[in-house]
Design goal:
By secondary structure, this protein is α/β, with parallel strands linked by helices. It has twelve helices and 15 strands. Helix 9 (about 280) links the parallel strand 14 and strand 15. The chain is globular, with a radius of gyration of 21 Å. About 35% of the residues are buried.
Length: about 350
């Protein structure tokens, strides 16, 4: 049994990646430091405080031109390997690996040559065994700055299990938007498209899950076919997804976008907007990536296509499930890669 200590940049990372990792670990791997890992923050006050803290750390480090590597020292303990979650390690006597969603997670503050040299030194240390970007796009961003670590970097895509909750057949067609950050995730553009589609089609309804600003809620309150929700626990979200037919989610600020995998795990076709790693996640067999120009009209057009074509929706739904069950986002493929990487790190 290989014992792997999960090192977080905070008390725990605000991502579902690690919940799925802990719940479905590779064979003969035991993760430590898992007690507080429950996935994304859904409590409104905790979410606000977390954002307040992160926002002010970024603000003051940039104001005073401070930059430091996002590297942490793990406590002593009975473990063989460190898996850094969205960060790097300062440990010099224990091998470690790190998964990275986006290049920006390598440092805190305003990037400069000094911090670049510090990060490079950490990455070239013999105890740094593997950097595991979530996407090819992030891998290329890292290699652009640190080409010297090409032999230490390998993409390991996040994974999610297929869902036990069964899709509920209905005469209604349900749309959904899910994004904790209303503006950054493209909430307004999604809402404009959803408002149009629910008004155009008698059997189309929608659930809108976000920290939606009060003035926006007031503006769209007249459309009773859209139900607005704030943050909710995963089990409540999954109940909604089990009754959903189409995800409309621009995801402008996403480095990855875990909602894509969650939607696919329920067999939900996706409509999104072009961005960093979208083409690695979504293809024309499971959804549509629309251009940023005339974005609302593009979202509406693809929505109309899926609403009016049940055969296409069903075909995409089956392809979504296959990608989660058998493809690069499957638990099986992720665990095979991780187990090999851990074993190589301990040689």
């Amino acid at each position: 049994m290989v014992k792997v200590y999960l090192q977080y940049p905070w008390k725990f990372p605000d991502s579902p990646y690690y919940k799925y990792l802990i719940d479905s670990p590779p064979k003969d791997i035991k993760y430590l430091n898992v007690e507080k890992q429950k996935g994304v923050i859904t409590n409104k006050k905790a979410f606000w405080f977390s954002n307040f803290l992160k926002r002010n750390i970024r603000k003051w480090t940039k104001k005073f031109n401070v930059a430091v590597p996002n590297a942490h020292l793990s406590p002593k303990g009975d473990y063989n390997l460190i898996h850094c979650a969205h960060c790097l390690s300062k440990n010099k006597n224990i091998p470690w690996v790190a998964d990275i969603e986006g290049f920006w997670q390598l440092y805190v503050g305003k990037r400069n040559n000094k911090v670049k040299k510090q990060i490079k030194k950490i990455l070239l240390n013999d105890n740094c065994k593997k950097i595991m970007p979530w996407t090819e796009a992030t891998k290329q961003d890292i290699l652009k700055e640190f080409p010297e670590i090409e032999n230490k970097i390998e993409v390991v895509y996040p994974a999610i299990p297929t869902q036990e909750i069964q899709r509920v057949p209905s005469e209604k067609i349900n749309l959904v938007f899910v994004g904790r950050y209303f503006e950054g995730k493209g909430g307004l553009d999604a809402l404009k498209a959803i408002d149009f589609l629910t008004k155009k089609y008698e059997n189309v309804y929608a659930n809108f899950i976000s920290q939606t600003p009060k003035e926006i809620l007031k503006e769209y309150s007249g459309n009773k076919k859209i139900k607005f929700y704030e943050l909710m626990p995963q089990n409540e979200l999954f109940e909604i997804l089990s009754k959903t037919d189409i995800l409309i989610y621009p995801g402008y600020s996403d480095s990855f976008g875990f909602i894509f995998l969650e939607a696919m795990s329920f067999g939900i076709p996706i409509i999104t907007v072009e961005g960093l790693s979208k083409k690695e996640i979504i293809n024309d067999k499971i959804g549509f990536i629309v251009p940023k120009e005339n974005v609302v009209n593009n979202l509406i057009s693809m929505g109309e296509l899926l609403i009016e074509n049940k055969e296409l929706r069903d075909e995409m739904s089956e392809n979504c499930l296959k990608k989660i069950e058998e493809g690069k986002f499957s638990i099986k493929e992720r665990n095979e890669k991780l187990k090999r990487i851990y074993e190589e790190a301990l040689k």
